[in-house]
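During the no-cost extension, the postdoctoral fellow (Dr. R.K.) reprocessed legacy sequence entries with the updated structure-token encoder. One reprocessed record is reproduced below for audit purposes.
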Amino acid sequence: MLEDGTAGSVFVHCWRGADRTGAVIAAYHIDRDQWDSARALQDAKAHSMSFFQLPRQDFIRNFHARTMAPESASSTGTVPAADPATAPAMTGAK
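Re-encoded structure tokens follow.
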């Protein structure tokens, strides 16, 4: 949904709008903008990710960009696996 240019705006949010949302946006920056995990984590913290969100911070530190082209992933319907404990709730853009 974040990569579909025809979908329009996408709203990513969680209860506080910083922790799970920050993890999703950090993963997006790592995957799509080739940010390293340190930069993505710094950005999430700058946007109010709580210091005690250790599982989400670990998720960002260990997240790697997909190795296949986005077109291949979308045509097969596969997406990178996420840790269910840290998987964010996503609705519509940040």
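The chain has one domain: 9-94. The longest helix spans residues 19-32. The remaining legacy entries will be reprocessed before the final report is submitted.
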